[in-house]
Amino acid sequence: MTSTTVETPHGPARAELHCAPEGRAALLLGHGAGGGIAAPDLVAAARAAVEVGVHVALVEQPYRVAGRRAPAPARQLDAAWLAVAEDLATRWFAEVPLLFGGRSSGARVACRTAAEGQAVAVLCLAFPVHPPGRPDRTRTPELAAVDVPVLVVQGERDPFGRPEPAHRREVVLLPGDHNLKADLENLQRAVGEWLDRILRPLD
C-alpha cells in the first residue's frame, strides 16, 4: 500500500493505492459524506478488485484531509475528484482504463464525473436514491446519466432507497442497510465477478 497526496482546486486530497501485480485497469473509490476510506464495504470492494487484477485508489476528499466532517458542495467534490483522477492517471495508472466508484456520496460523485473523467464503468455502493423519508427528492437522474456499465450494490433495508436495474445498470441487493456491513463476503464476490466480466472485452 502506498499513500500519495494530490493537489486539487479545493486543497490537497489523499489517495491510498493498492496495486495489483499486473493491473488490467484502475478503480478509484470515494468515501461517503461523513465517513472515510476505511468503511468496510470500500475495503471489501478494494480487496475484490485487486484479486481480479485491478489497481485501486481509495480517495480521500480535501475536506476530510483537512479534518472536517461536513462535506463540501457537490461542485467542489466533483472538481477535486476529477483533479485526483487526472493526476493518478498520469502518475500511476497510465495506459490502463479507469473505473470510478464509491459509497453513498462518493457513488454520486463517481456518477456525475464519469463522462468527463472518461471512466469505462462505475461502481456504486449504497447509492443514496433519496434522503430518508423523502422519496420526492430523487437522485436517480445522476445514475441515469451514466452511459457506461454500472453496478449498484444496495442493502435491502437501505433507508436511502433502492435503485432499479436499467440498461447497462445491474443492481445487487444484499441483506442489511446503508452501511452494507451485513454481508461483506457476497459484496466482495459481486464486485469481483462484475469487474472481471466487464473488463474481459478490454483485456
UniProtKB/TrEMBL annotation:
<dbReference type="InterPro" id="IPR029058">
    <property type="entry name" value="AB_hydrolase_fold"/>
</dbReference>
<feature type="domain" description="KANL3/Tex30 alpha/beta hydrolase-like">
    <location>
        <begin position="24"/>
        <end position="167"/>
    </location>
</feature>
<dbReference type="InterPro" id="IPR026555">
    <property type="entry name" value="NSL3/Tex30"/>
</dbReference>
<dbReference type="Pfam" id="PF20408">
    <property type="entry name" value="Abhydrolase_11"/>
</dbReference>
<dbReference type="InterPro" id="IPR046879">
    <property type="entry name" value="KANL3/Tex30_Abhydrolase"/>
</dbReference>
<protein>
    <recommendedName>
        <fullName>KANL3/Tex30 alpha/beta hydrolase-like domain-containing protein</fullName>
    </recommendedName>
</protein>
